[in-house]
């Protein structure tokens, strides 16, 4: 097997490998890494026409918790892996499901991160309006859609250079789920298929102790 693209799941327990016509999943908790699951086989799609096949090539884990995969050709399509922590076919590979506004060849498009701050002493630094010593306060989080049925988006803003945690509690105050958040990203998609109907409470806490909270109503 030859791999052209690799990416880890958010929990660091699985790695995905692209091999043009095939997409593989390796479970790093297993002692024998020679065994793996084939989670997708190229479905024979071209964009816009042959010979521009929508194969499996480079990969990138994005803040919404999905892996995006390029096609290795100049196409307008990308694939996604939706449930990265799930084993085997349950990870759900969506082939050529992302339609780009223009043709892209091989590399994963990357949106610039405007929250990284200045590079002190750099002659090319143009972010003169940001003071590296500024202590940003934790702003209110935004949850949408709300109510939600299968997934929802969380927009947040952590203090500069401070990571944090997202915790979800049920109406009885029991911790249901927690996830690590990084200050360099500002958006996250959370899947709630496994949760029952009801009101849930979200708590976002930075490593320096600043907090924000919100509520999500799940109705299926």
Question: What do you see in this structure?
Answer:
The protein is mainly beta and 220 residues long. The protein has strands at 5-8, 14-19, 22-27, 37-41, 59-61, 67-69, 74-81, 93-105, 142-144, 151-155, 164-169, 175-181, 187-191, 198-206, 211-218. It has a 4-stranded antiparallel β-sheet, with no helix packed on it. It has a 4-stranded antiparallel β-sheet with strand order 5-6-7-8, with no helix packed on it. Strands 12-11-14-15 form a 4-stranded antiparallel β-sheet, with no helix packed on it. A hairpin with a 5-residue loop joins β11 and β12. It is globular, with a radius of gyration of 20 Å. The termini are far apart. The model is unreliable at 128-138 (pLDDT under 50).
Which terms summarize this structure?
four-stranded antiparallel beta sheet, 41% strand, 220 residues, globular, mainly beta
